[in-house]
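Title: [Solved] Deaminase 3D structure

Original question kept below for reference.
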Amino acid sequence: MTADMNRLESLMADAVEVGVRHVESGGLPFVGRLVADDGWVSEPGVNLVRETGDLTAHAEIVAIREAVETRGPSSLEGATLLATGEPCALCYRFAAAHSIAAVCFAVDRDTAAEWGFDYRAGYEMTRLPLAATAEHLAVPRGLVPFTRYVDLHRSDFTS
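Solution (posted by the thread starter after getting help):
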């Protein structure tokens, strides 16, 4: 891991709170954020699939696209991607294609599935390596965006 672990935990905790706010405004609980070796930190990217109709507008991809636009395509080499939910196979591949060295997530794929976000089938379809380093980075309120989403959309899960 290239970035300081305490700093990553703090930035992840902030991403989780962004996720809670995004859920409360009608969005999905996924947030992505990048930390570069030179200390630069991206603005949080949120999942915009519903808002845009772009099926690739996952939080991690949104954050990466914005970072490339801001800093240039080679600026992410060696960076760390923070994600509130473990990235799907598409997002892992997108991160790898941008030379992102590490991925940290607050909620793993199995826990996300327990809360109604089951994207695990995509991993089976993608048999290529997904990322150089992936690590669960537990933060105290890591699951809150997901539980809050279910609380707000309980009728969607009971019908």
